[in-house]
Structure formats: structure tokens, C-alpha cells
């Protein structure tokens, strides 16, 4: 089922949380809502679920307006950070519970619960109680229980934050697999850009109750619409510097109106190279290597250009203090105006 928000606004006690939000979540896709703490991610999810209602605007599931329907009527499945399993019930009983509430006949619900246990790879633990399971296993049960309702939409609110780093990576792959297998439209809330980038068909980047960009992971990285998205997506974080020291070097490269408006330049670390190979070069600049740091496989090189420091992850090792030319590639260099809007970079032919 696809989900549409039309001009949705929401406030807590007169404090505006979401401002005129418009979006469409396509059917059968996995969408992440990504943004810093307090930006309105859970509020957006709760509006989709029907736990809260908007102050203005419309919410549709498919063609059907659901703005005034509660969570039960909307048929959503929810999984939270805390697994919220029933401790006195076995795994199988936990998965069965929503079907029991929906008065699904007994043999049918037991068969369905076993099928779901298999889907989430928990079939060998069905007679255990939640306390006997690891965090990852408990989250599998929570997902199976949410799917037992045959929800129109599956909503996951930071479901992996209680797991350790390795298990998080494993479980995000699992969620992706389960979502693909079931085809259920899924909305996943996270503040972890790496998680969102790996799991999603599309990512809605929120900041301060406003959608900054709603695109595929690659588009967010290669074609950020503003400085916030450019800085929020990507690791290491993009170099963002004042444009003034670069202005002369860019005079021949960009239109005069862009040159006049640009206040900041964003440069991805891999777009700063010591020698260009096949890639399209934007500009050659003089610089001094000030530092090299090896982090596992990654060599991070610090380059001084005029009074600015740039970090590259795509540089050949040379002696520190060396003067040498470096190159900025076309791909991964962006110019922004004072309001943070992108003026140049990330075009399809770059
Ligand atoms: N029940 C509530 N009453 C009043 N204010 C609330 C309530 N719930 C959330 N807020 C406020 O609404 C804003 C958005 O909260 P929300 O939980 O949607 O953010 P979030 O992006 O999910 O954050 P986090 O990543 O920290 O969970 C925050 O400023 C929060 O303090």
C-alpha cells in the first residue's frame, strides 16, 4: 500500500514539529526516515500509524483517506527499539497473539506463526520465552509478530539501536531480506546514515521538521540538494569550506551568476586526487601535504590549500610538507549559496 502525506502539519503544545510535509511512499518499497535527534522522525512515523493525528493536511493509504482513522483501523504493524514482547508467552505464542485477537481460526494461526518463525529464522527457538533469547533474536520475533497482522504497512522505529555494532549490520540485512520476500511497504526510522544507506530503496532526510530531500541513497550522495544533506550523508564527512579562496580558480569554470552567489564549496574526500586517471577533472590547484593517517584500509591525507585544510581519501602517499598540485574531480564537488541551496555539482553528465 502506498502512503501519501499532503501538506501535513503537526505541533505539540503549540510547538511546531512538522511543517507542511508532502511525500509519497511507493508501494512495496523500503523507505528510511533519517535525521538528527529531535527532527521529527518518530512523529512522522506515529502520524503514519495513526497513534497521533495531524493538525492540518491529509494522509492517504492508496487512494483512501485515513487521516481520521486510528492505528487499528489503518492495519499497520509496528516494531520499536524495545522489543515489547510478552515475557510470559513463548516465541510462538507471541507471534500468534495478534492473530488470536483478530480471531483467526486456531489451526490457521498456528500454521501461519510457524511460517513466520521460519521467515525470520527463529524456527528453532519457538518454545523459548523472550528472556532466553538474544537481542537480535527478540527483534526477529517482534518483526514476525508485526507481520502476523498482515499489515498494510510495516513501521520500524529505530529497531536496531539496542543491538551491538556487528549484530546491527547482520539484522539490517535480515530486515532487507524479509521486506523483499514479503513485499510489504516498510518505513524504517533511524538516525544512522550508514544504516539508511544500506537498507533503503529511498531515504527521506528530515531536519527541523522539514524534508530536506527524498531520494535514492545514491542520489543523496551524488546529488545532494543542499548543504545539510551533503554534510549528513557520507563518511568521512564532506569537506565544506568557504568559497572565497576558490573563487579565482573557478572563474573560468562556472557561470558568473553562480560565481557571484556561491558562499560555500563542498568536496567529497575521494574527489581530491594526486593524479587523475580516467576521471573528469574540474580544476588543478596548488597545495601542501600536511599529514597522512592510515585507518585500516583507508589513507587519509590532509592538504593545505591557501589557508584551508582539505581531507582526501584518494591520494598517493608523498612526504609531508611537499608542495604539489592536486586535482578536484567533477564528480563530488558542489557549490552552495548562503541559504545552503546547491547551485552547481552532481549534474547527470558530471
Ligand atoms: N509527547 C510529546 N510531547 C511534547 N513534545 C514532544 C512529544 N514527543 C516528541 N516531542 C518533541 O517533538 C520533537 C520531535 O520528536 P521526535 O520524537 O519526532 O524526534 P526524532 O527525530 O524521532 O528524535 P530521536 O531520534 O531523538 O528519537 C522533539 O523536539 C521532541 O522533544
UniProtKB/TrEMBL annotation:
Coiled coil: none annotated. It holds the Pfam family ABC_tran. The keyword ATP-binding applies. InterPro entries: AAA+_ATPase, ABC_transporter-like_ATP-bd, ABC_transporter-like_CS, ABC_transpr_MalK/UgpC-like, P-loop_NTPase. Keywords: ATP-binding, Nucleotide-binding, Sugar transport, Transport. GO terms for molecular function: ABC-type transporter activity; ATP binding; ATP hydrolysis activity. The keyword Cell membrane does not apply. Residues 3-233 form the ABC transporter domain. GO terms for cellular component: ATP-binding cassette (ABC) transporter complex, substrate-binding subunit-containing. PROSITE patterns: ABC_TRANSPORTER_1, ABC_TRANSPORTER_2. This is ABC-type sugar transport system, ATPase component. The lineage of its organism: Bacteria, Bacillati, Bacillota, Bacilli, Lactobacillales.
Amino acid at each position: 500500500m502506498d502512503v501519501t502525506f499532503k501538506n501535513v502539519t503537526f505541533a505539540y503544545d503549540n510547538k511546531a514539529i512538522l511543517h507542511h510535509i508532502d511525500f509519497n511512499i511507493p508501494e512495496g518499497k523500503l523507505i528510511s526516515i533519517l535525521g538528527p535527534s529531535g527532527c521529527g522522525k518518530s512523529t512522522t512515523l506515529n502520524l503514519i500509524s495513526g497513534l497521533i493525528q495531524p493538525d492540518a493536511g491529509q494522509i492517504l493509504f492508496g487512494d483512501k483517506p485515513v487521516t481520521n482513522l486510528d492505528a487499528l483501523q489503518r492495519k499497520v504493524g509496528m516494531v520499536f527499539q524495545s522489543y515489547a514482547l510478552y515475557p510470559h508467552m513463548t516465541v510462538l505464542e507471541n507471534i500468534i497473539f495478534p492473530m488470536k485477537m483478530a480471531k483467526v481460526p486456531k489451526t490457521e494461526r498456528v500454521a501461519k506463526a510457524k511460517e513466520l518463525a521460519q521467515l525470520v529464522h527463529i524456527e528453532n527457538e519457538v518454545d523459548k520465552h523472550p528472556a532466553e533469547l538474544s537481542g537480535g533474536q527478540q527483534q526477529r520475533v517482534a518483526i514476525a509478530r508485526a507481520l502476523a497482522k498482515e499489515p498494510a504497512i510495516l513501521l520500524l522505529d529505530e529497531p536496531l539501536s539496542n543491538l551491538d555494532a556487528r549484530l546491527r549490520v547482520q539484522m539490517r540485512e535480515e530486515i532487507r531480506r524479509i521486506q523483499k520476500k514479503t513485499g510489504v511497504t516498510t518505513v524504517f526510522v533511524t538516525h544512522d546514515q550508514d544504516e539508511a544507506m544500506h537498507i533503503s530503496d529511498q531515504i527521506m532526510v528530515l531536519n527541523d521538521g522539514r524534508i530536506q530531500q527524498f531520494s535514492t541513497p545514491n542520489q543523496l550522495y551524488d546529488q545532494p540538494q543542499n548543504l545539510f544533506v551533503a554534510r549528513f550523508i557520507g563518511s568521512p564527512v564532506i569537506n565544506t569550506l568557504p568559497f572565497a579562496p576558490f573563487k579565482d580558480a573557478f572563474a573560468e569554470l562556472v557561470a558568473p551568476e553562480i560565481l557571484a552567489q556561491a558562499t560555500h564549496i563542498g568536496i567529497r574526500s575521494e574527489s581530491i586526487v594526486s593524479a587523475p586517471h580516467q576521471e573528469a577533472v574540474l580544476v588543478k590547484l596548488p597545495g601542501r601535504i600536511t599529514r597522512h593517517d592510515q585507518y585500516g584500509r583507508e589513507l587519509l591525507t590532509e592538504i593545505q590549500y591557501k589557508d584551508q585544510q582539505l581531507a582526501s581519501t584518494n591520494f598517493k602517499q608523498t612526504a609531508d610538507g611537499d608542495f604539489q598540485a592536486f586535482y578536484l574531480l567533477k564528480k563530488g564537488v558542489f557549490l552552495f549559496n548562503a541559504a545552503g541551496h546547491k547551485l552547481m555539482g552532481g549534474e547527470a553528465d558530471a
